[in-house]
Each structure stands twice: as C-alpha cells, then as structure tokens.
Specification:
The protein is α/β, with parallel strands linked by helices. Helix content is 46%, strand content 15%.
Length: 342
C-alpha cells in the first residue's frame, strides 16, 4: 500500500489535513514542519519555502487552540456587546478589532441583545474557551458572572461606563454627568417644559434620572418620561412623540436615550407639522455617522467610541503579554454636539 493511499485514509478518519500531511508532502520531519509554521526564523529559507508550498497546496490551517494550550496563550479576545445593528458601539468594535488585529490578536464577538440572562450565557461560554482577554460593554453587577470572571483570572476591561469598583480595567464615562449636562444645556437655551424618551436599560436609566433631577434643581416642572421598553426603533420614537404631544402639549425640549429614538421623534414632529427647533428642541445620544447630514441635523451626545476601542485593546494586549497596566481606569468623557435641532 503506497503513501498516497495512507494519506487519503488519514483524511477520511479525521476530516482535516494535518501537519504530518504537510511534512510528508514537503519531505521534512513533522517537527521541522511545525517550526516552519510556528517559528519560521528557526528554519532555513529553503526548508521554509518547501513547507509553505505544501501548506498552500494542501490548504492546511494551523490548530491555534492546540498551540494556545502549549503556550497558555490563545491570541483571542472575546467581546460581549448589546447590539451591532444601528449601534452606537460600532465605532468602538471597529477600533477594538483593528488595534487587536495589528497586534496579532483575533476578536470573537457575541451580542447580548441587552438581555442579562443572555449575557450570562455568553460569558459562561467565553470563559470556558479561555481567551487572552474579555471586553465588556457596561459594568458587570455583582452576581454569578462577575464571580466567575474574577475566579478565571482572565484580563477584563469594562467599557462605556464608570464605577469605583471595576472587575479589572475600565475605559468609560459617566452617564449621570451626561443626563445632568444635557438638562442644563437645554435649560440654558430657555427650554422650560422638558420630556424624555428612553429605552429600558440600566445605563439609559441613569442618564434619565440625572436629567430629571437637574431639571427639578433648575426650578422647572417634573420631566415627562416615556419608557419604550426593549424597543429601540424609529417607530418607538414616533409613538412616544405622539403620546408626548397629546399628554404634554406645551413640551419644548426632548432628550432621547438613543439617536434612533430621536430620529423617530423628529419624523413624527415633521409628520404633524411641529417646527424643530422653534417649537421643540431635540437631543439624541450616540452621534451615529449620518446625523450631521440630515435635515434638520440632529443635536446629540458624542462619545469617542474609537478611543474606547483602541485603549481597551491596548489594556488587554498589555495584560495578555504579562505587562502591568497603570492607570487601569480611564475616563474618556463626552461632548454635546449642537446642530439644527437645538
């Protein structure tokens, strides 16, 4: 029985080309083929060319999990984010991925859909795969997932929020400060009857509470709040605006917990012939890319998502490679971007 038939039978059994197959085709020992693939500077140019030619001809892909077990490094970073659809997190994800890729790391992405239960399941699966680091959107509260992360010893960076008790590292900003500053911004423009349209998540809730408190502190009536629940759609924003115009006809400013909800509010004001900003001012949150080109252009809260992604990647790379991180908490701040709607 010839060697060719042996190779075929091996592939039927495993379903994959192995490094041994590559070594046989290149005419070198398996250990030499391994060095050529994993540490090419340890073999001669002639041997390296033979092995790489064999890799190209066979389509062989190195088993990075096995290599990670040997070195205790996976070169894999896991990220858990609420959503990527029309998301304020896209700039962060792109920056995180690009910085990691340039350093030789790969990003594994999971979406929680703003569900605590789903986030717990994702984190359980992630921890079991032992990545070199974990990126989280938001602060993980006390509970099973936080306990498991602390016990795992895996470097963790929490983002898009601030807390005095991070799990490990933190890159974010204060949602309470945003709510307060937006309220003061609108009142400084003479707005006196304020409303708020928010989704039902914890960070939006903190912005809403700070916004309402600042309005009352400024001597104005209580803020009228519409909670759209789990929906973050343009339709939800339109429906919220219908309710506001019926129940608070003298409203003159609205703060929305996302730009998409704000776009829904704007759409309904246009449909009902309500002038913006003359009659009602509107502020969103997130500054998604196309807002500046709309008519009217939406005023919003800008978060430097690219900085969050880049700094988070640097934190995780430093820790994965055994170097200390100091300081391990960074406040990137925010800005209110004033456009046509205010």
């Amino acid at each position: 029985m010839n060697g060719k038939n042996n190779t075929k039978r091996s592939r039927r059994g495993s379903g994959a080309i192995t490094l041994r197959d590559v070594a046989k085709l290149a005419g070198v020992a398996p250990i030499t083929a391994s060095r050529a693939v994993n540490t090419p500077d340890q073999v001669s140019p002639e041997v390296l060319k033979k092995v790489l030619d064999a890799v190209h001809r066979t389509g062989y892909v190195p088993n990075r999990i096995a290599g990670g077990l040997a070195s205790s490094r996976s070169r894999l970073i896991a990220a858990v984010v609420p959503s990527t659809v029309m998301s304020v997190f896209m700039e962060t994800i792109e920056s995180l991925n690009g910085t990691l890729f340039d350093a030789g790391y790969q990003l594994m992405l999971g979406q929680s859909g703003y569900s605590v239960a789903r986030e717990e399941l994702l984190l359980e699966a992630v921890i079991g795969r032992r990545p070199d680091g974990i990126f989280l959107t938001g602060i993980l509260p006390p509970g099973k997932s936080r306990t498991r992360l602390l016990a795992s010893g895996i470097p963790v960076v929490e983002t898009w929020d601030l807390t005095p008790t991070p799990i490990d590292m933190l890159v974010g900003f204060s949602h309470s400060d945003i709510g307060r500053d937006v309220a003061n911004f609108l009142m400084a423009k003479g707005r006196r009857r304020l409303a708020l349209v928010r989704a039902d998540d914890e960070r939006a809730g903190r912005r809403a509470t700070a916004f309402a408190d600042a309005v009352v502190l400024g001597g104005q009536r209580d803020v009228f709040v519409v909670n759209v629940g789990d929906s973050r759609s343009l339709r939800s924003g339109r429906e919220a605006m219908v309710r506001i115009l019926v129940e608070v006809p003298d409203v003159d400013a609205i703060f929305c917990s996302s730009d998409l909800l704000a776009l829904g509010v704007m759409t309904e004001t246009k449909a009902q012939g309500v002038a913006v900003p003359e009659r009602i001012a509107i502020v969103g949150f997130g500054d998604v890319p196309f807002l500046a080109d709309m008519v009217p252009a939406l005023s919003t809260v800008r978060i430097n998502g690219a900085d969050i992604g880049k700094q988070s990647a640097r934190f995780l790379i430093e820790r994965a490679e055994g170097r200390p991180v100091n300081p391990c908490v960074i406040d990137v701040g925010f800005s209110i971007v004033e456009r046509d709607t205010t």
